Amino acid sequence: MHKRFLGYLVGMLVASAAPLTAAAQDYTLGTMDKVTVRVVEWQTTEGAVRDWSSVSGDYTVGPSGRISVPFVGDIEAAGKTTQELAATIGDALQQTLGLMDRPEAAVELAEFRPIFMAGDVETPGRYPFDPNLTVLKAVSIAGGIRRSTDTGMRLERDFINASGQRDVLAVERSRLIAKRARLLAESSGRDEIEFPAELSSSEEGQRLIESERAFMTSRAQRLAVQLAEIDDLKSLLESEIAALERKIETQQRQTDLARDELTGIGDLATRGLVVNERVLSLERQIADLEGRVLDMETAALRARQSIAEATQDANALRDDYETGISQDLQQTEAELNATELKITTQGNLILEALARAPEAAAGASSGDQLQIGYVIVRDTNGEVAELPANENTPVLPGDVVKVDIQPVASQ
């Protein structure tokens, strides 16, 4: 029971794991990654759970690949998954402090290490990493291709920028549509999600569908486990009440027998046929039995109060779950509407560029007037390499994306 209850608490710590945790499940940490650590300990001797607030908090993996944790010092984080780091922290705390029980640690990836944009982009510099990031998306995040004072090249770059932004927004729109479908299923209590047909027509859409299905299943299972823990606690308390009621009944019978015996010898004691010590002994026995009954009734009352509190906790858990879904659905609807407006705006910018310079699209696609080169600089196990890339090449945390734009004279 204690282990299940501790597992329930640790589950609550990582409940916000959500999409970032799912995306980083097999991700190995590196320098500049930020993690959130939560530590709790089940104290067997006291039968209680203690939150290690002095250890819990946010940590950044330093240049040495380590994080500095109170009580245990530096811990190697680079090259480990969040699950492996959590196990390392728990073991280190137990060994360093000589604890009877191993503290339970939960590590959540709070922020990937950033990427860096260099070369012919509008705003070179450092940018946060997002899952499923490609070179084209990274260039769009950096403001697109650097603009030139030359009108023709500027219009071509306007076309490229608007196209890239529209592609990024289209991916975001698909993600929001999939999320909205999942939230609608959760809010109505359905086990199956009704996804729009447009999602199933592409590989990216299929990945979004599988991701949302897995997320809904995971969240439903987490809620079921939490409610089951509360039901187990209520069952235990109900069994305790039943045992107390049986003990109270036994004590009442013993009290009644003692009273009967006292009544039988009372007259004899008055006439001196029985010593008063026997009478006093029976009276003390009756008082002791009545005190025990009162203690057991008080314990039963406390157990019933705990059952009522557990029922309230279960109701609050369901209410929070439903409220969270409702709030997420409203926010998702708002974000989806804003994204669709942005897509329309980028489409209008594309049409404007084409209206003013029809050759912009041909130049951007064929490379006759504008040649764009991409290179990714990546540090792998301490070795830096330059990798040729295109617009669809995936970008990893810590990458440097170099963009080189060269105008080419028409033949």
Descriptive notes:
The structure is a single chain. The protein has 411 residues and is α+β, with helices and mostly antiparallel strands. The protein has three domains: 28-112, wza like fold (2-Layer Sandwich); 116-146 and 366-407; 157-362, Up-down Bundle (Substrate Binding Domain Of Dnak, Chain:A, Domain 2), CATH 1.20.1270. It is built from eight helices and eleven strands. It has helices at 2-13, 18-23, 82-97, 135-141, 151-188, 203-270, 276-356, 359-366; strands spanning 34-43, 48-51, 57-60, 66-69, 73-76, 104-111, 115-119, 125-127, 370-380, 383-389, 400-407. The longest helix has 81 residues, at 276-356. It is elongated, with a radius of gyration of 34 Å. The termini are far apart. Mean pLDDT is 80; it is low at 1-24, 363-369 and 407-411. One of its GO terms (molecular function) is polysaccharide transmembrane transporter activity. Residues 164-346 form the AprE-like long alpha-helical hairpin domain. Residues 22-109 form the Polysaccharide export protein N-terminal domain. Residues 1-24 form the signal peptide.
Identify low-pLDDT runs: 1-24, 363-369, 407-411
* Intertermini distance: 79 Å
Average pLDDT rating: 80
The number of E-state strands comes to 11
Biggest sheet: strand arrangement: 8-7-11-9-10
Number of discrete domains: 3
Q: Which structural category fits the helices and strands? A: alpha+beta
Beta-strand residue percentage: 15-25%
The largest sheet is: 5 strands, mixed
Which fold name fills CATH's third level, the topology of the largest domain? Substrate Binding Domain Of Dnak, Chain:A, Domain 2
Q: What is the CATH architecture term of the largest domain?
A: Up-down Bundle
Helix content: 55-70%
Summarize the helix and strand pattern as letters. Answer: HHEEEEEHEEEHHHHHEEE
Mind telling me the C-alpha Rg? Answer: 34 Å
Which shape, going by the Cα principal axes? elongated
* CATH class type of the largest domain: Mainly Alpha
Number of helices: 8
